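Quick note —
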Amino acid sequence: DTTRYAYALSQIDTRYAKEIKDIVTSPPAEHRYETLKKTLIQRLSTSQEQRTRQLLEREELGDRKPSQFLRHLKGLAGTAVPDSLLRTLWLGRLPAQMQVILATRQGDRLEDVAEQADRIHEVNDRAVVAAVEATSTEKTTLQAQIEALTKQVAALTTQFSQERKRWRADQSRSRSRSRSRNRGHTKGFTVEHCYYHRTFKDKTRKCEEPCTYKAIKPAKPENTEGSC
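Predicted structure written out below.
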């Protein structure tokens, strides 16, 4: 017995050794191996109900109706889980607002409660669909408004650009005309005056056609009293 006990201890994984620490530190005087084996089985094994419960606790409602989910849990549980535990597990997986409503039917058959849960589920689904459609409509309207504003901004930008180009063209033509006028006048003489008149004015006796220069005649002196 002592040999078997010592060999068993040497084969136990360190993860499980802490579960039998009390036996290792204070082994019984007799039947050490049997005591060790029974204690390991008792402390490390779980019952069928516990294993089934762990399995069921991982299940989720998903897109199933509550009654469908209940039948699914029953199929997994079999006869290992009592109805009271199955009821608790099933209700715990339903939406919170549905749990509040169904909590008032503790004494009713589970199948009847599942039927009511289906009706609540259908109402919630319709409400969700309506909310999604409303949100979609609002989104479409908002998108249309954004597109309209974008087009208006683009049109204003184009108009501003065109007006700016016209303004620059007008300014350029205005400067060009101003330079032409300045070049066409030399101290009061236009380009229609010939070279001699532009250069020598009244002092010249020469003239080249075409020339529109007209000499400025000196004013005649006024007659004074007593002149003859």
